[in-house]
Amino acid sequence: MSTALAGVAHDIRSRALGWLHTHRQLGALDGGDITGNTDGYKALAETGLAASLVLRDGTAGSRESALARELLDFSWAQLKEGALLYERLLRHPLATDTIEGYAHFARAGYRHPGLDRLIPHHAALGAAQVVEHVPNRRLAVANALRITGHDHGAGAPDWATSARATWLGGTPAPWCIDWMTGYHVTHTVFHLTDWGRQPGGLPGDMAAYLIRWLPVWTDIWTETCQWDLVGELLLVGSCLPAPYAEPDDWRRLAELQHADGLMPRDDQPVDDDTVTRFHDHQHTTIVAAIAATVALARALDAPAIGTPAAGAPGTPAP
Amino acid sequence: MLVERQRRDGLTLDAELLEGLMARPEAPVSGAPLHTPAMTTLVVMVLSPKEPKEPRDPKQPRRR
Amino acid sequence: MTSSAAVAVGAVRVLGADALAPYVLTGRALLPEESAAVRLSLSALPPVQRPPAAPPDGRERPWLRAWIDWGLVAVAARLDPDPWCVAAPVPQGPPPCDDSAPRHRSADGAVGGEGWVPWSLRMGQLASLALPGLDGPVHQAARSGALALARGATRALLRRDFATAARITRWLAWLAADGVALPLDVALLTEDIALRGGDDRCLLDAAIARRLLGLEVPTT
């Protein structure tokens, strides 16, 4: 990613964080409980994720770091400093969402002693393999155990098997994809690479497959203005061993982003009501913040954007 | 369609119209997948089970 | 000259070498009336003697016609037992499109050149050249653009633009017949388009692709 593009990404992230921070109260948990608040709970966890990544990669200035901290403080307080996650995991042992959510707070330094004891026990029970999740969700649990340091010993996740079980792991005909599968692909990459921290976590053939076909999927969903998915695809590009990024994609996102930092999820009119707007477009704005964050981290690591390796443009896809 | 003028000695084709027909532009609107409609999970049993309600209070143990 | 014959003459030019595809694929000699129709079509509007430069520099439509005319003449001259003196000059080949090409030319015109999206669409316009026995600058560009073609075909298919997908896939099939290794399964791609594409023009391209791949042509 060139210096100019890094500037674009930085600007996107800065505005997105600002919007998320300004309106964070709208994400408060109704009644102070996770139950019956699935969307709100999910949004708090994703806010924690985004903020934790901003702090993780060390590309944030003091203003952005402060915003990220306050987003974490707010989300953690909403989750009663982890107590809601802990109680949920005690009551519902198969609720791996608690582990998945907690990992990002823990990474940023927000710990709950009960969860810290309970999670290694669930790891030993085989949490990453036992629950009948779709394969990319298993990878989410595996990554959460990896982040919290409980991925060794008896309960070590079987990364290879779970990775191969995904759609991406089968490297299928590239036209056998739909919108939902697009999200399965993105999440597979996020968890295998720990949100871009470890591009080598992606098996070589899957990386080569993505280099070939990611541009196609990015193109078709850009054309139909699915900005939420496109944002995740840009993030995938930043997670690859040889990052894929096209300048026009980032410029487009910067232009689409509202002045206050909201990133619209598609080409439909954005609602005027503050609460509705927040719930409709929070996810996409979070995605933009994360995509920009990882892009910046890779830009600072890699000396230059190499031409994307074609992999083996000879052999038919397995 | 193609305009042809019949002259005494034969036929002419209009270059611009011909080139217009040769140029086959791509479909102007994308039919790209937005969403595959929700697929019902087929359950082995004839009636798909409804989730049992959570008991509010723990049951009192039965006296034997 | 009846009006329907006149229309047929126009149709031959639009199809280019594909008008003679049955002969190319079966190796039968051109019938005199077919030969006459092609010659008549070419005399109604002779091929340009100085074709324009390749796009994006030159104008696209006359350049496409120059190539389609070249293909028609090359195939007709080869198949016709009678000698041909109508010449169609070899136009400039398309620029190459390698694996590092962006999707579209970047807005600031920086690195990458023309993108694989417009490049593959243009190759699709020249699908009538993707026949056994034809070779030249366009085919050479196809050889270096296998990934661009594969991406273009996949993109068209996902957009449900079956006609475009079929045309671009013709080139992939031609490359397979030429022994070029491909990044996807072109037989599956061809089948997919033929089964889901529906319309006649797309089926013609799919049938030619199948023959190039050495697959069985369905009798229905």
How would you describe what is shown here?
The complex is a heterotrimer of chains A (318), B (64) and C (220). Chain A is mostly helical and 318 residues long. Chain A has 14 helices and no strands. Chain A is globular and about 45 Å long. Residues 304-318 of chain A have low confidence and may be disordered. Chain B is rod-shaped, with a radius of gyration of 36 Å. Chain B has a two-stranded antiparallel sheet. With 220 residues, chain C is mainly alpha-helical. Chain C has two domains: 1-92, no CATH class; 95-220, no CATH class. Chains in contact: A-B, A-C, B-C. Chain A binds chain B through residues 177-180, 220-221, 223-224, 226, and chain B through 30, 32-36.
Salient structural properties:
heterotrimer; A: 318 residues; mainly alpha; Glycosyltransferase; 14 helices; 62% helix; B: 64 residues; alpha+beta; two-stranded antiparallel ribbon; 12% strand; DUF6895 domain-containing protein (chain A); DUF6895 (chain A)
Describe the secondary structure blueprint for this structure.
The complex is a heterotrimer of chains A (318), B (64) and C (220).
Chain A: H1 3-22, H2 38-56, H3 62-78, H4 83-91, H5 97-107, H6 113-124, H7 127-130, H8 135-147, H9 159-165, H10 179-192, H11 204-223, H12 227-239, H13 247-256, H14 274-301
Helix pairs in contact in A: 1-3, 1-13, 1-14, 2-3, 2-5, 2-14, 4-5, 5-8, 8-9, 8-10, 10-12, 11-12, 12-14
Chain B: E1 4-7, E2 10-13, H1 15-22
Antiparallel strand pairs in B: 1-2
Chain C: H1 3-15, H2 21-26, H3 32-44, H4 60-79, H5 116-125, H6 137-144, H7 146-158, H8 162-177, H9 186-197, H10 200-213
